[in-house]
Amino acid sequence: SQTIHQWPATLVQPVGSPLSLECTVEGTSNPNLYWYRQAAGRGLQLLFYSVGIGQISSEVPQNLSASRPQDRQFILSSKKLLLSDSGFYLCAWSSGGGVGGEQFFGPGTRLTVL
Amino acid sequence: KNQVEQSPQSLIILEGKNCTLQCNYTVSPFSNLRWYKQDTGRGPVSLTIMTFSENTKSNGRYTATLDADTKQSSLHITASQLSDSASYICVVTEWSSYKLIFGSGTRLLVRP
Is pLDDT at B93 greater than 90 in this prediction? Predict the structure, then answer.
């Protein structure tokens, strides 16, 4: 069966510090991978998606970036965090080779920028 | 503009009671509609999925309905339990697209 992991679960960082959130998927190959952010009381906002290694598409201009160094690894980064980067970050995967498939979400990372 | 709107924003019910959550969407063309349950501090988990040709889909005490003509969906929860306390998110997929359009969710609190 497939599983998706995210870490850390919670993170408190000062403004201006760097960020690295990691997501890995097990039990599948060539998945589509996604990063979402959920602000308090708001819907999920798609930040990045990837259909393959090294292929990253950005949905929203921001000071965040994403990378996919391996097939089942997706990393969300920032060089300098802003207060507005606080939120709940979710990684998700769906089966590759098609579009519109069901997305399966990880447990999330709660980021607080102070 | 493709949008998904949910109502109410929040809801409090007593344990054992039924409730219905609403979802209206303007996504076009439409592929499918999903209802997710998201416990506090956790990732969303899929409850049901319906294509445009399906009118109703059940998953235990959860029953989703879809009216593709009026672009409305509802999620009915029967005999609520304390564990039903969560946010319920309506998600619509554009046709032939990876893009999911998320509603902002309905926060349900079930009280004993």
Answer: no
Radius of gyration in angstroms for the set of CA atoms belonging to chain B, rounded to a whole number: 13
Contact A96, A31 (CB under 8 A): yes
- For residue B14, the model assigns a pLDDT of 97
Instruction: With cut-offs at 50, 70 and 90, classify the pLDDT of residue B30.
Output: confident
Nearest CA distance, A52 vs chain B (angstrom): 14
Main-chain dihedrals φ then ψ at residue A42, nearest 5 degrees = -120, 165
Average pLDDT, chain B: 92
Distance CA B61, CA B63 (A): 7
Q: What residues in chain B have their Cβ under 8 A from chain A's Cβ atoms?
A: 4, 31-32, 34, 41-46, 49, 89, 93-100, 102-105
Q: Which residues of A touch B44 (CB under 8 A)?
A: 44, 90, 105
Residue contact B100–A103, C-beta within 8 A: yes
Residue located via tokens 């359009």: B101
Nearest to A91 by CA among A10, A11, A25, A12: A25
pLDDT at residue number B98:
62
Segment among A58-67, A78-87, B73-82 with least mean pLDDT:
A58-67
Give pLDDT tens digits for B48-61.
Answer: 999 888 999 999 99
Nearest to A99 among B46, B98, B104 (CB): B98
Whole-angstrom distance, CA of residue A97 vs CA of residue A79: 32
